[in-house]
Write a structure and sequence with these properties.
Length: 123
């Protein structure tokens, strides 16, 4: 199964968030490569990061969808004054939100699998 982590950013200061997201995605891709689920070819967690240019709305997970073997959901993350956050803190925030979204998707797909390797990457 493929794993993707695209993002929509509401401000130039969200660049720091994107850099951490890329690092996390690279670590998760090989883990997801070894997961098989008949009706799903890809899990795509779409980060929607609030910033100085606006908000995507209420924080949380929304817009779960399974279309043509691609499972998607949006994760809205409120503006946390990204320029003042250290890389480690941004990474910690993202890992928690991404894990919540993966669990949410698996639950909505009725997909029961051991996620210990995913949790290990995101710990």
């Amino acid at each position: 199964m493929k794993f993707s982590l695209p993002a929509q950013l509401k401000g130039p200061e969200c660049k720091n968030v994107m850099l951490q997201a890329i690092s996390i995605r690279k670590k998760l891709e090989p883990v997801f490569f070894n997961i098989e689920f008949d009706s799903v070819n890809e899990i795509s967690i779409i980060l929607r990061v609030d910033g100085s240019l606006g908000s995507f709305g209420m924080e949380g997970i929304e817009n779960f969808e399974l279309t043509n073997g691609i499972c998607t959901c949006d994760v809205v993350i409120r503006d946390l004054n990204w320029v003042k956050q250290q890389e480690e803190q941004i990474s910690k925030i993202l890992k928690l939100k991404i894990l919540e979204a993966i669990v949410y998707c698996f639950k909505n797909l009725n997909f029961n699998t051991d996620i210990s390797k995913i949790k290990k990457v995101l710990s």
